Amino acid sequence: MFVLVNLKAYPCDPVEVATAAADVADDSGVRVAVAPQAAHIDAVSETGVETWAQHVSPNEHGSHTGSTLAEAVADAGAEGTLLNHSENRLKLADIDASLDAAERADLETIVCANNPAQIGAAAALGPDAVAVEPPELIGTGTPVSSADPDIVTAAVDAAARVDGDVDVLCGAGISTGDDLVAASDLGSTGVLLASGVAKADDPRAALEDLVEPLR
Amino acid sequence: MFVLVNLKAYPCDPVEVATAAADVADDSGVRVAVAPQAAHIDAVSETGVETWAQHVSPNEHGSHTGSTLAEAVADAGAEGTLLNHSENRLKLADIDASLDAAERADLETIVCANNPAQIGAAAALGPDAVAVEPPELIGTGTPVSSADPDIVTAAVDAAARVDGDVDVLCGAGISTGDDLVAASDLGSTGVLLASGVAKADDPRAALEDLVEPLR
Amino acid sequence: MFVLVNLKAYPCDPVEVATAAADVADDSGVRVAVAPQAAHIDAVSETGVETWAQHVSPNEHGSHTGSTLAEAVADAGAEGTLLNHSENRLKLADIDASLDAAERADLETIVCANNPAQIGAAAALGPDAVAVEPPELIGTGTPVSSADPDIVTAAVDAAARVDGDVDVLCGAGISTGDDLVAASDLGSTGVLLASGVAKADDPRAALEDLVEPLR
Amino acid sequence: MFVLVNLKAYPCDPVEVATAAADVADDSGVRVAVAPQAAHIDAVSETGVETWAQHVSPNEHGSHTGSTLAEAVADAGAEGTLLNHSENRLKLADIDASLDAAERADLETIVCANNPAQIGAAAALGPDAVAVEPPELIGTGTPVSSADPDIVTAAVDAAARVDGDVDVLCGAGISTGDDLVAASDLGSTGVLLASGVAKADDPRAALEDLVEPLR
């Protein structure tokens, strides 16, 4: 299982979370990555943790003020990028162009989507993975794997119909090791989580609990 | 073949074009529809021509100022709607929600896209049809069917892989009857056209020429 | 006082509300206008009521699919347009260009804004009027004139500092004649209202109550 | 005069340009700052140069994936931020909220705008400075100060009418010391420039030439 911790714009210390994530990944053997603010990628990747961007822009090098250039986040240490998170929905044409940008910069890609139909659409664009995130569950602490398991299996089916090679992640309400196991049982190969770790009093303990069943 | 004339924001007389389109459809037996500005749908549909919206918003009834409610365009006489035209690119989640809105209002749907990958994504959302429009050919008078026939066959293949029932239209640079025949030969079941008719000195003559090979 | 009834995307009968508004305007001598969906402008203006658009796009005639062309809404009978409603926030550059578009089409303009600073900014662009609408009060039935009278006087001041000729309207939570009088006492020359009329069981009675204190 | 070098998404080495800018600022006594990609702020500010962000998002701390949090860019070393650059036009309400975000993070602010009317609107929102950038001159090498000097003086007047304390910068086509002097003569207190330095074969020489008349 792949565990991607999205720090969003939370008021956490990104280096503290990253250091904990790097240690937990080392100790457990579970793949754990952290997606900080673009301006924190440099500092986060210095901890040795696998670092992801939360977004990259669809543009190439050129006259694009305020964009998030894929090459720049890669240069700062990112190895992958989320795209089309429910808090940052993109135009279909821009998801496609951002995937091209990520590929040029050698970034792995996860495209998020709301429901199985959109998961099928996202998979048709050829990302490395897709993540199903029913918007109504984000930030609730209610894991999609128990609140709406059918949506996960339907997402896995929709993705497989379009592209047999694409991974499917679960992306809403995940916070415990049991949620992780449930997500795996439904056919997903990873999870996106955010507040469960980033807003925890003790992010290290939260991550340790999370990966416990996978050790 | 289905011929959809998109009037965009052109300074043409929408009722004159609509009347010509209605007559040409009657005389030739070819299905011809006209997509005017939302504010002209009422007047255009009064001519008896099949009338389409250029866009509908993803929202339902409610507090949405400045939206284009699917139910309102249907009420004014529209029978279908374009979505995600290259001049009006939408978020993936909004294409999905606009398709739901169109279905509630009993509108037929065509989702436009730039290239075969996006055509596959659009088809995965379940519209009635998709239209492939390489942006670089729009408004050029160079038909996609001759400038880049491979993109049309690739789009037909991409759509079929995802949804065997979805129609594929050609949508850029079409202006003559020969273009229409070429589009049909490549596997498409219709065309979107705009300036070739809407900006013609004699829109009726342009439409008659267009459908001539289909009579 | 100017009373503008914004029908948004409500499931009301726009012609019924428009007919009531036309009658109430005639009987009371109060200026009352109705802003329906673009696709309903034609039918609404046929009732004789002063008709407004809820929005116009910043573009001129040309290749702009899915836009709301100022000339098209004027052609269908609109005499004015709202811009930048809190449910349809626009880019600063687009408010400016939409004002140009409205002027070309001879449409009166009201630019909405959240707070006095934005009211000053909107006034600097030279519209006929601005409307202050604290987002947290929209649709609440709590009139801005009583919930936050200071914001209205601050808006009137901010507008006057930038452009002495611009009118200031109150635009959130207005539903009764008393609200109208309070808005007038605070220096505004009109009100935007929506659900108070459009969702009333008897829109005519709601309008009559509203204008009663102005007769 | 304040010289702000916007690196946009250019394929330059941001640290090389930053080092040159820091040296030129030291040698000449002219205030020179560099605005890199968000992911490069950390490395650029390490050179000791005054570092700016190209943009910050309107949001506060919280659940906002893919945003550019003002606190994060400040944390990485930024001392100011551009907003509403013509390549990144913002909603009026978002310029206002991004100014609030910048203030919370103690960032200096420059709001860009197309023309004198929009400059007045931008000034009404209370930034530290505004920058006038006619879009048609950006990247041309034709300085606004010679191509259209009236637009600069009109911008200075428009800003002064609304807020006597706001600085006005010139922001399009500036590349030489003469352009800088011309901009100063028209009443501006700084310049934005980009390709003239970032795409120069020798950025240090370009900066030295630029500040030469100010020594």
From TrEMBL, chains A, B, C, D:
Substrate binds at residues 6-8, 138, 173, 194-195. Belongs to the triosephosphate isomerase family. This is Triosephosphate isomerase. Homotetramer; dimer of dimers. The keyword Glycoprotein does not apply. The keyword Isomerase applies. It is found in: Cytoplasm. The gene is tpiA. Involved in the gluconeogenesis. Catalyzes stereospecifically the conversion of dihydroxyacetone phosphate (DHAP) to D-glyceraldehyde-3-phosphate (G3P). It comes from Haloarcula onubensis.
